[in-house]
Amino acid sequence: MCTSLVEPYGWAFLPDLLLEEIFSQLPIKNLGRCSQVCLNWYRISQQDYAWRRFQYKDKMFTRRKYTSHAGWQHMIDHWKLRFLIVKATTKWRVLEIEPVTILFNLYEFIRVLTNFSEYYERNSAEKPLQGIRSFSFKWQLHVHVRGENQTERVFGTGGEMLKTLSLLLSHLHGLTELSLHELQLEPYECNDFIDDILYKFDSQLTSLCIINLTKVYRPFLQLGLFLFLEHLTVSPQHLDESIVILLADLRHLKSLIILQNDKTFGAKAVDSKAWQSFAERNTHTRVHLIQAGKRQNTLLIQPKAPVYAIIFDKSTGQLTSELTEEICHNYSTTLQFFLQKGLERRYRSREFTKRVDIFAIELAHRCRSFFFLSLFFFFFFF
Fold first, then answer.
1. Which CATH architecture has domain 1-51?
2. What is the pTM of this model?
3. What angle in degrees, to the nearest 10, is found between the helix axes of 356-366 and 321-331?
4. Any idea which fold 176-381 has?
5. Cα(226)–Cα(316) distance, integer angstroms
6. Among 139, 184, 215, 261, which is most buried by a count of CB atoms within 10 Å?
């Protein structure tokens, strides 16, 4: 215990900055337990920095309730949720919503949070959610379909969930970073949604991440209209020639990441003329190609794009002779980094000429600006 009789040393008396950083990484349940250890830890747990990042996960703020049709269920506890929102929302700076299995609880969380902000904005000058600078929403709903090959069916975020999410975004007045993952919308659902985001944050966002917003190929011209955007991460099915031309005129854009994963379908490469025009008009943006996911598909090459780095992030994709030739043909003067994170086991020919390290050496030899190569967790510098 921390009393006046105990000398000020040990875990209880770590520097405030260090304790705040530790507490900011803890889940809410652990943070509450730490606040009961001693007076000093209780004092630190009440600081704003310890609550700056809030991550909503499955079964948070729930209690078990027995229902006659489904047995014991984790139902949302509105009293706990109300207590959290009233006490902590003004301290939040980062709000993250992770994929969940109980959709009704997620819907209730967003609805209650939105109603809370709407009430104060209507009846006073307060804006409880104005302090949130970063918002991340990740969606993942897979339903196993019985029958042939036991396939999975992916459901998107449309309907009431999408309306509630859009309404919540309208109350995040101080937002500068927005990340939307795997919403998997139908083409007719996304038009108003992306327009609302542009209308609200056109001159405010500095970082935007949109991964698989739709299930099919659907370019969004709005991506090139966020005037002060510095970092853009987007799936290749949301790009076309017109968008690339618009992105070339964004003066503050530092990085353009084209991310392809196992849920990216219908993506097409942008025409080489558009990328050549982009390279001529824009010399300050670094283009990254990233492939992630377990599905065995090839990296989508953007012809003549000024690609700065290629990354396989825990992906089954690997260097082959065809891929090496395409990379060297299109990016020999611009490519500086090639990274393979988490090499997956995959069948390859035993012939020496088809070994992956042979292609890596060829890549390093033919790309004149090459600087860094990471493969098999070994590092080579040039």
1. Up-down Bundle (1.20)
2. 0.84
3. 10
4. 3.80.10
5. 34
6. 139
